[in-house]
Specification:
It is a single chain. This protein folds into 3 domains: 152 residues, Jelly Rolls; 98 residues, Immunoglobulins (Immunoglobulin-like); 303 residues, TIM Barrel (Alpha-Beta Barrel). The chain is globular. The longest helix is centred in the middle third of the chain and has 18 residues. It is built from 12 helices and 32 strands. Strands 25-26-27-28-29-30-31-32 form an 8-stranded parallel beta barrel, surrounded by 4 helices. Strands 3-2-4-10-7-8 form a 6-stranded antiparallel sheet, with no helix packed on it. Strands 1-14-5-9 form a 4-stranded antiparallel sheet. Helix 8 runs parallel beside helix 9 and helix 11 packs parallel to helix 12. Bound molecules: (2S,3S,4S,5R)-3,4,5-trihydroxy-6-oxo-oxane-2-carboxylic acid. The site of (2S,3S,4S,5R)-3,4,5-trihydroxy-6-oxo-oxane-2-carboxylic acid has 10 residues, from loops. Its EC number is 3.2.1.31. It is an enzyme of class 3 (hydrolase). One of its GO terms (cellular component) is lysosome. It is found in: Lysosome.
Length: 639
């Protein structure tokens, strides 16, 4: 009974946003039309980057306003052409695509037609046939607009979608940045400016995730929230369905197992479903059958005087719990040790654009490596990636785009308000993913600054109120002992680069310094610790023995030095290790980066460096010690 009450309490946490953001899925009541492919594209190169708005480029076909080029969607635009000014472009770019919408979508005024953008970086304004339908601040998260009403106003018009996207970062965006104008005319031409940022990845821009149209009936399932628990072998699924477009509807909610059998159903919009002989959702390498998902099918029937409609939405549900003690992290009440990676959404040519071959390759590499988890450094990843995590049992620390908050002006009210809104959007999108076990609100903020205390106290409290079922953290650098936000986190996540940014070349200091790091922080805060980053750059193919920085040998020995300490501390309070980084990735140009950050254990093209084999051996050994290998594997690791 107590469990059930707790589940109710957990679900009462209401998101401040007034609409849901369910992943678009086809069903017997919902159709979907992907708009991926080639769009017309034009960068606004006018000095104030505002000509597109002044001349209303959205009012006519983009090709009529000036020269356009082909631009693939989804993709970053930066690496698509040979033009360095487009690679480094800052300001508004314009995308346009004309779509033919099925006639019945227009004639049937019982349908909603929704235009959805998976993500666009950074600020977007969207028009349909010259009429503004929405705008959205922030990359990495989806936004939508209902456009059926507009299309029906003039059914003879085609559906011309124009999206203007601006990648400019300022003190109040997430991540923050500043624009610096260079006014010394002896050194810079007129109008010269640069975008400064405090993060270590290329500020790729454009429409990064799928754009699509989908339909729902007028009375529709707007959102579903699921919180799970179990008692002995009975699973508990507390759900709540929010409905829009009707006040009188009937509902049937059914939980279906993998074999397609209906396990339990209800006629209520919210309640607790009891699942006998539950199959829990387990992480990869913790159970023989990881990533077990049920389906929660919601059928909503609504009628008015003239007609009856049905909306059907099906949500995958994994039943699992997450808890934290002062020394351990538990999934389904069993200790869980994170042996995983940090990633980036990053690849040749497509930049941060969603790319299925890359996604599947990365999952195959993570499984080959024996990784059971990753952190979405340093922003929310595509929902398609989280769905893969749910299915494969890869555990996720889900991070907001709060990276590079270093300027004291970025701790003010405007920044905090936006950061809170981003957390609302992030939790709204990702709350139902069993793979997501922790929220990370930021990476390496200047947490020693006085305003950081109130900022993080508010931010973490807010995130916990949004989702009381998951721990909250932010990722700290080695200033942790002066860290003003640390008292509020549930798990301490610390990044350190001993023998790299400090004492370069001296790998022999790693054990002592790492030991001190762990003992200091555990001693002060008595919270479990994840080594959330560690690593070293390698130019692939560069060799030297004895090891020298930037060689494959050096990366190997750095890792081995860290691992010795992890092995001592994981018996006490260290609950995970995440290598920086899974793969090499692009950064802005600078004297410490040789065509990007080279701390990957795989190259950007996903070929292993020598250290990948060290990590693979270790992760499979850890899995063998702490978990249960899947049926298809044999230690030390599958071929
Ligand atoms: C860090 C950052 C990460 C960088 C990494 C590095 O602490 O969190 O974004 O890429 O160090 O390689 O310097």
């Amino acid at each position: 009974m107590l469990r059930v009450l707790w589940l109710f309490a957990a679900l009462d946490a209401v998101l401040l946003l007034d609409t849901g953001m369910l992943f678009p899925r086809e069903s017997s009541s919902r159709e979907l039309k992907e708009l991926n492919g080639l769009w017309a594209f034009r960068a606004d190169r006018s000095p104030n980057r505002n000509q597109g708005f002044e001349s209303a480029w959205y009012k006519s076909r983009l090709a009529e306003t000036g020269p356009v080029i082909d631009m693939p969607v989804p993709a970053s635009y930066n690496d698509i052409t040979q033009d360095p000014t487009l690679r480094d472009f800052i300001g508004w770019v314009w995308y346009e695509r004309e779509v033919t919408v099925p006639t019945r979508w227009i004639t049937d005024d019982g349908l909603r037609v929704v235009l959805r953008v998976g993500s666009a970086h950074y600020y977007s304004v969207v028009w349909v046939n010259g009429v503004k339908v929405t705008e959205h601040e922030g990359g990495h998260l989806p936004f939508e607009a209902e456009i059926g009403t507009l299309l029906r106003k003039d059914p003879t018009m085609p559906c011309r979608i124009t999206i203007a996207v601006n990648n400019t970062l300022d003190l109040h965006t997430l991540p923050p940045g500043t624009i610096q104008y260079m006014t010394d005319r002896t050194r810079y031409p007129a109008g010269f400016f640069v975008q400064n940022t405090n993060f270590d990845f290329f500020n790729y821009a454009g429409i990064h995730r799928p754009v699509l149209l989908y339909t729902t009936p007028k009375a529709y399932v707007d959102d579903i929230t699921v919180v799970t628990d179990f008692l002995d072998d009975t699973g508990l699924v507390r759900y709540s369905v929010s409905v829009k477009g009707t006040t009188s509807a009937t509902m049937k909610v059914t939980l279906i197992d993998k074999g397609g059998h209906c396990i339990v159903s209800s006629n209520q919009a919210s309640g607790v479903l009891k699942v006998p002989n539950v199959n829990l959702w387990w992480p990869y390498l913790m159970h023989e059958n990881p990533g077990y998902l049920y389906l929660l099918e919601v059928r909503l029937k609504a009628s008015d005087a003239s007609s009856t409609s049905e909306d059907v939405y099906t949500l995958p549900v994994g039943i699992r719990t997450v808890n934290v003690s002062s020394t351990q992290f538990f999934i389904n009440n069993k200790p869980f040790y994170f042996h995983g990676v940090n990633k980036h959404e990053d690849a040749d040519i497509r930049g941060k654009g969603l790319d299925w071959p890359l996604i599947v390759k990365d999952f195959n590499l993570m499984k080959w490596l024996g990784a059971n988890s990753f952190r979405t450094s340093h922003y929310p990843y595509a929902e398609e990636i989280l769905q893969m995590c749910d299915r494969h049992g890869i555990v996720v620390i889900d991070e907001s785009p709060g990276v590079g908050i270093k300027d004291i002006r970025s701790f003010g009210n405007a920044s905090l308000t936006h950061h809170l809104a981003v957390m609302d959007e992030l939790v709204r999108r990702d709350k139902n993913h069993p793979s997501v076990v922790m929220w990370s609100v930021a990476n390496e903020p200047a947490a020693e600054m006085p305003p950081a205390e109130n900022y993080f106290k508010t931010l973490i409290k807010h995130t916990k109120a949004l989702d009381p079922t998951r721990p909250v953290t932010y990722i700290t650098d080695s200033n942790f002992s002066r860290d003003k936000g640390a008292p509020f986190v549930d798990v301490i996540c610390v990044n350190s680069y001993f023998s790299w940014y400090h004492d370069p070349g001296h790998v022999e200091v790693i054990p002592l310094q790492l030991n001190t790091q762990f003992e200091d922080w555990y001693g002060k805060y008595k919270k479990p610790i994840i080594q959330s980053e560690y690593g070293a750059d390698v130019v692939p193919g560069l060799h030297n023995d004895p090891p020298v920085m930037f060689t494959e040998e050096y990366q190997k020995v750095v890792l081995q030095q860290y691992h010795g300490v992890f092995d001592q501390k994981r018996k006490k309070y260290v609950i995970g290790e995440l290598i920086w980084n899974f793969a090499d990735f692009m950064t802005t140009q600078g004297i410490t980066r040789v065509v990007g950050n080279k701390k990957g254990i795989f190259t950007r093209q996903r070929q292993p460096k020598a250290a990948a084999f060290i990590l693979k051996e270790r992760y499979w050994r850890l899995a063998n010690e702490t978990g249960t290998l899947p049926l298809w594997t044999k230690y030390p690791c599958p071929l």
